[in-house]
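Sequence in, structure out.
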Amino acid sequence: RAEEVGKTVRSAGSEALVVQADLASLEALDLLVKKTVERFGKIDILVNNGGVAEVQPIGTITPEAYQRIFDINVRATIFLSQAAVAHMSDGGRIINISSIAAQQANPGIAVYSASKAAIESITRVMAVELRDKGIRVTAVNPGPVLTDAFYSIPSESQDHFTKSFPVGEPEDIADVVVFLAGPKSRWVNGGTINTNNAAVF
């Protein structure tokens, strides 16, 4: 899939670099930044879009699931941002992908919900810390989106989400991210933008 995206970007006349990396690995995070800087010289925009979820009621959550979710959803966001900021200048942008789960009580996803609530808190703190460097940090909190990740969850969970919330397409979220990455969002900093068609607000 990543190679397909790279081909699409190149066919549109832009450059693309595809790097396979496990976000649970701190070494892989450094490799992502290293290869990007080697190719492009600097980093202008970072979108922290990696994420995993497991449906486990509070009584059956395992330490392994907890660790994996927080390593990928939270730790990777912190340390990939840290590595990228060293190569950003005034005007840099970091966009973190949260979820409506950060603000809603959906059974079975306590750990995932906590990880996304952490993302929104981290976004606020990073925005204040990096403001004087001219780097803006924002987040978006989509509801259910028809992606491979959505289709990978149990069918009963898919049914619950599609019946309970508006379901979006990837483009619905991407358009907001593009806006936040562009110059017209220059005064938007530190907030989480609702991108879920009023599922939460």
